[in-house]
Amino acid sequence: MFGQKYDSIIRRMFIASVKKDKIFRASVISCIAYKKITVFGENKNKTSTVQHKYSKDSSRVHIHAEIDVITKAKQFLDKDELAKATLIVIRHKLSDDDVTYIYGNTTPCSTCRAAINDANIVKVIYHDGTNFVFEE
Ligand SMILES: [Zn+2]
After folding, report:
1. Ligand 1 centroid to 66 CA: how many Å?
2. Contacts for 57-61 with beta carbons within 8 Å, 24 or more apart?
3. What residues have their beta carbon closer than 5 A to ion ligand 1?
4. What is the pLDDT of residue 23?
5. What is the 70 CA–ligand 1 centroid distance (Å)?
6. How far, in Å, is the centroid of ligand 1 from the Cα of 34?
7. What is the distance in A from the centroid of ligand 1 to the CA of 108?
8. Tag placement on the chain: N or C end, fewer CB within 10 Å?
9. What is the average per-residue pLDDT within 10-22?
């Protein structure tokens, strides 16, 4: 869909989202990929000062997957590299048949949008609930 590299990352993130394994306990999985560097993140039931900084609503301070991965990626990538990197956000949801898992909506919220813009990230892959969206 987006090339072999991204397709395999997206598949891996989707499976992690369903399984909630030891590494990924959350259901929203994020990734920032640039060349050989791949950093993963997840939503957390924890608060963060970074989330708080971008949030307009002071009661919504739990870490979103986008904020988590941006915070981590900044340890490995500078602003110019982040501008060329791709941010991917994936979650699963149960389909109407109550058996199969399908991709859920991961359109970034306004808080994450502000953090994405601030980090210089322009390439973003998410699912809008119907289709994948690739902004670039
Ligand atoms: Zn968000």
Report:
1. 6
2. 60/111
3. 64, 109, 111-112
4. 59
5. 12
6. 21
7. 5
8. C
9. 85
- 61 CA to centre of ligand 1 in angstroms: 10
Amino acid at 88: I
Tell me, in angstroms, the distance from the centre of ligand 1 to residue 87's CA.
13
Amino acid, single-letter form, for residue 56: K
Q: What is the pLDDT of residues 94-136, one digit of tens each?
A: 888 988 999 999 999 999 999 999 999 999 999 999 999 999 9
Task: At 123, list the tokens.
Answer: 């390439």
Kindly report the pTM of this predicted structure: 0.89
Ligand 1 centre to CA of 97 (Å) is 28
Ligand 1 centre to CA of 78 (Å) is: 22
Pick the closest to residue 44 from 17, 26, 21 (CA basis): 26
